[in-house]
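Hi support team,

I've been running sequence recovery on a batch of backbones for a student project. Most finish fine, but this one hangs at about 90% for roughly twenty minutes before it completes. I'm not sure whether the input is malformed or the queue is just slow. I've pasted the structure tokens below so you can try to reproduce it. Let me know if you need the job ID as well.

Thanks,
M.K.
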């Protein structure tokens, strides 16, 4: 699967057990989105631990106002392109909207993303009973799962927009319970998006699987950003939790390297990138 990037510096491929070891040892995990071969190659060379083919491509690549129009065929196509640029970074891909509506559809989607696309893991949003059933079914059939809680973009209409989640005590306790539930269902990784930093810390301490934050504070086991946000090239206002790492640097490679260094050192996210 990871054989195309012959010019990348030699390093051991990132694995799920390796990510758990990083959590146990307190080494922060670096995750970044990629949607094509060239940027995937840049991530791999920079030593990024996880490349995420997010359905965020619907917004930053296709120009939609949400992730909802992205199809499974789109995700398979972009995943395969990214896979050809990687030699060591772990490849994770989103299950697009409604591909997780029941177990049969989720299994078909997961099989395509892994078999045709070359993904090592699929990401799924939410923790409703049927999502927990889907997580269990996928992992039982050796398709690793990354769960995604908090501000889940596929629920944008239910939330009434891209709103921070878990600020009220009841909502925070529910998210904490959901984090434990997705771990119990078999998830190996957990993305936490758009929640108070204090809740990100609570959840990270409460689960045994690594947590990856995006607007979830500095205490998660790792961080992820949308590549275009991190490079400052997304049209419109940049999210509060992001930072333009290309500013003051002369190349994309330097920006990605700076992002990776700041995540690993704990310099990013800073207080101004967090929610309370």
């Amino acid at each position: 699967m990871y054989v195309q990037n012959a010019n990348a510096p030699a390093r051991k491929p990132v694995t799920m057990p390796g990510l758990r070891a990083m959590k146990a040892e307190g080494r922060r995990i670096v995750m970044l989105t990629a949607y094509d071969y060239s940027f995937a190659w840049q991530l791999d060379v920079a030593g990024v631990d996880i490349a995420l083919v997010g359905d965020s491509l619907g917004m930053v690549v296709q120009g939609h106002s949400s992730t909802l129009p992205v199809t499974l065929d789109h995700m398979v196509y972009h995943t395969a392109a990214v896979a050809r640029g990687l030699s060591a970074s772990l490849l994770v891909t989103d299950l697009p909207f409604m591909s997780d509506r029941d177990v049969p559809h989720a299994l078909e989607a997961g099989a395509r993303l892994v078999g045709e696309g070359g993904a090592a893991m699929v990401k799924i949003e939410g923790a409703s009973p049927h999502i927990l059933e889907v997580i269990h079914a996928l992992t039982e059939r050796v398709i690793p799962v990354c769960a995604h809680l908090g501000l889940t973009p596929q629920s944008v209409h239910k939330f009434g927009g891209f709103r921070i989640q878990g600020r009220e005590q009841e909502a925070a306790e529910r998210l904490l319970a959901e984090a434990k539930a997705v771990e119990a269902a078999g998830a190996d990784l957990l993305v936490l998006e758009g929640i108070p930093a204090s809740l990100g810390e609570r959840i990270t301490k409460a689960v045994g699987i690594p947590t990856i934050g995006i607007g979830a504070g500095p205490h998660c086991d790792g961080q992820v950003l949308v590549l275009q946000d991190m490079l400052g090239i997304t049209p419109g206002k940049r999210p509060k939790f992001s930072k333009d790492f290309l500013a003051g640097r002369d190349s994309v490679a330097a920006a990605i390297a700076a992002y990776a260094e700041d995540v690993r050192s704990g310099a990013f996210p800073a207080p101004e990138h967090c929610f309370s």
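--
Follow-up from support: It reproduced on our side and the slowdown came from queue contention, not your input. The chain has one domain: 16-273. No action needed from you.
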